[in-house]
Amino acid sequence: MKCGKERLPETAPPPVPPPPAPVPPPPAYGPAPAGPSPVAPSPVAPSPVAAFVGRALRGDWAASVRAALWPTGLLLVLATALAVPSYGQEDEVVVGWSDRLRIALALLMQGLGGGFELTAADGAGFGTGGSSSDGGRFSWGNGSDGYGDGSGFSGSGTDALAQGSASLSLVPLTVTVLWIAALCLGARMLRARGAGLDAAVRVSLSVTAAVLVLGLFAQPEVAGIEVSSSPLLAALGALVLSAAVTAGVLQRDDLADWLAQRPAARSTVRAFGTAIRALAVVIALCSLVGFTVYASNDDVDGTALLIALPLLPNIGFTVLGLSWGVPVTYDVRGDVGMVGSGAEHGGFGLGEISDLWGGGAVAGAVGLGVVSALTLGVWAARRSADRREQLSAGAFALGLVLLFTGVSGVSTELAGALADFSGQGVSEIAPSVPDALLFGLLWVGGATFLGPYVLRLVGQQAAVLPAPPYGAPPYTPVVPGTPTTAPPTPYVAPSHGEAAAPPTPYVAPSHGEAAAPPTPYVAPAHDPAAAHDPYTVQLGAPAASPDASAPGADGARRRRVLVWTVTLVAAFVIGGGATAGALIWQDKQNKQDKGGTVPVAQDTPSAKTPDAKPEATPPVTPSATPSAAPTDAATGSPSAAPGGDGTLPAGFTLRQDPAGFTVAVMEGWTRRQAGSQVFYEAPTGGDYLQIGVIPNTPMSSYENFTGLEKKHLANAESDYRRVRLERNTFQGRPGAIWEFTHIPEPDEGGLVRHVIDQAFVAADGTEYAVLVAGRADRWDPEKDVVFATAVDTFRAG
Q: Which of 573, 643, 691, 742 is the most buried (most CB within 10 A)?
């Protein structure tokens, strides 16, 4: 037996293992060690764009093509309807039905961005005749025969265009609107079948291909005239429109979900939709009024009404502009057969309406403008949730009015040989966009302000936004001075040696013992002062509160609203009437100024010959001094001459010129002669008096002015604009007066110069011309002294 204190025997340490054998060096060449077996690479997933393109190309093309047939068929139906009339070709049909169909397609393509251009092919004219019935001019007017009542497609021909071309720029908005509506119909059918965004790609490509084919088809050659419809531009416009429309229709639900989470974007989209709906109602009303007025004209037949149908929205925007005071301006430069030769610029507004149809027509036009503006304002107030959305709707409506006003006009361009001279000309008829901006701000701004008051007057209330798709937690109004949350409890660490309390385990209720019901949520009492939001504006009638006051207070509130509304509407109507009156007065003043600026010598006894035209004689320019009154020096007889400086206006002196004439010029003006032209120039530069002397002239003064005007027209950079060019009688001799503006030096600042020139042929066959030139922005016919004094004192010999 051992006690446990025995000494154990010592054990020997383990033997040391021998060192490892040295590793032999690797051979110079040998097979590489076999690696792990290669793993087959996984297929690369396509990118989202590639996957979308694949779905779009592999999708249901048959359904997409059926959807694209709606807008394509619409174009064919409209072109067929326009090709039915023969347009005055009963005796000899030059343009057959198929050619009329293709020409109509080319015209309709402009609604999608295409063009319309006529180009002479192989030096041929329009018709088969040898001469043109209208003097060789290209005309869209109301002639006796031809395509479009005088366009020259019949036997008369237009050989004047043999070496030229003509283009027409016109956007038929009816075609654009109907084409978009037909495309929406086809896209809705696809959405009903569950098509996605990939179907929009297929529909857009199908529509673009169809428009391109129709554009290539709409390029006939008629009697040597080639018609171009710009098919590539039309196809590009169709691609953009179709992609936007079909994507919006097919993704409508997804777009609504996206907007529901973004209130600002949702409010903007709602405002834009409100502007479109309100403007559609207004333009429909204005189009109906304009079409009715146009149809009531005695010269308008069924063919003219058919041609006007594709332009109904264009007519509507023009009528809306006229009712708001926006004139329709025309600008003609060159020799364009639809207006005539020369250069003219003017407008047609409320003043011209008063001259044609009287004050009742002006009152009706202004009333239509008031109704249109209030329609925009009431729609914006009724469908808007707050003031910001209402103002956005008004701004969108004004922007759409400006956009479509700018594209509702028509312009033509002609380049080629016209009769015996170059026939380059440009004409444009369109509402004035700057005036539309000015008057649109006044009318739309006033209507946007009055909209909520009009709604309150009729007892309606603004639209209420639908609830968002996801529920929101209950909202407790915040009372000022009350803390919103309890203050946080600071964390206290356990003391040393004190163990933290273990978590309390969950004890399930025993069988048969019901759990305590949850405490129901009790909403706090409504506090109007606490629930007030200073950034929210109530549009329309306010909601009735339970603690409403007595009926007397309600009646007083209604009377106050009525008084304010009537006052504002009266101010609105009076302002519109004042605007119309101011425009009418201004137009009449302009007409009086244009009708009465002629040489003073016309008022002398010797100038009042039987063939003198009263409208070609300017009134005597008043002067601040009594010396400006007519004297014996202005009788026009060769022996009569001003007796001295006492008979001249202040600051003038009489010059006996070596060139053989006498004229009064301003003191300090220096003389300069260049050939047969004598100049008296102001020391400050810019203004001058020019006297031209042409012995033994072979033509009349009017013919001379006409030839000079052609040279001005040939230079497009001069911006030549004729004010008047007419025959008259000056000092008992046949003459002519010519007034115009132009830019003499386009490369040196582009300053516009006003020129007025009175010429006549003396008894010895010498032509004299009295010309005064100066800056156009400083010319005032009522304050003119230089030209009036020159023609009053000029004497030949």
A: 691
243-273 pLDDT per residue, tens: 999 998 988 888 888 888 888 999 999 999 9
If phi > 0 it is left, if psi is from -120 to 50 it is alpha, else beta; for residue 347 that is beta
Cα–Cα distance measured from residue 728 to residue 603, given in angstroms and rounded to the nearest whole number:
12
Long-range CB contacts (within 8 A, 24+) of 638-642: 638/795, 638/796, 638/797, 640/795, 641/795, 642/793
Tell me which residue range forms the domain holding 175: 58-261
Evaluate whether 660 touches 693 at the Cβ level (below 8 Å): yes
- Cα–Cα dist 534/539, whole Å: 14
Phi first, then psi, for residue 569 (nearest 5°) are: -65, -40
Give domain status of residue 280, yes or no. yes
In a shared domain, residues 292 and 212: no
Amino acid at 121: A
DSSP secondary structure letters along 727-786: EEEETTEEEEEEEEEE-S-TTTT---EEEEEEEEE-TTS-EEEEEEEEEGGG--TTT--H
Query: What is the rounded average pLDDT of the residues 341-356?
Result: 80
**Has residue 508 got a pLDDT over 60?**
no
* 3-state helix vs strand vs coil in the chain, percent to 5: 45, 15, 40
In a shared domain, residues 232 and 269? no
Total number of domains in the chain: 3
Distance CA 84, CA 99 (A): 11
Residue pair 437/417 in contact (Cβ under 8 Å)? The answer is: no
pLDDT category of residue 647 using cuts at 50, 70 and 90: confident
> What CA–CA distance (Å, rounded) separates 565 from 571?
10
Does some domain include residue 496?
A: no
DSSP state of 704: H
- Continuous H helices in 543-700: 551-595
Q: HEC string of 331-392? A: EEEEEECCCEEEEEEEEECHHHHHHHHCHHHHHHHHHHHHHHHHHHHHHHHHCCCCHHHHHH
**pLDDT digit string, tens, across residues 159-182:** 433 456 788 898 999 999 999 999
pLDDT at 177: 94
Residues 229 and 316 occupy one common structural domain: no
Give the whole-angstrom CA distance, residue 566 versus residue 563.
5
Tell me the chain's radius of gyration from C-alpha atoms.
Answer: 43
Are 438 and 392 part of one and the same domain?
yes
Residues 181 and 321 in one domain: no
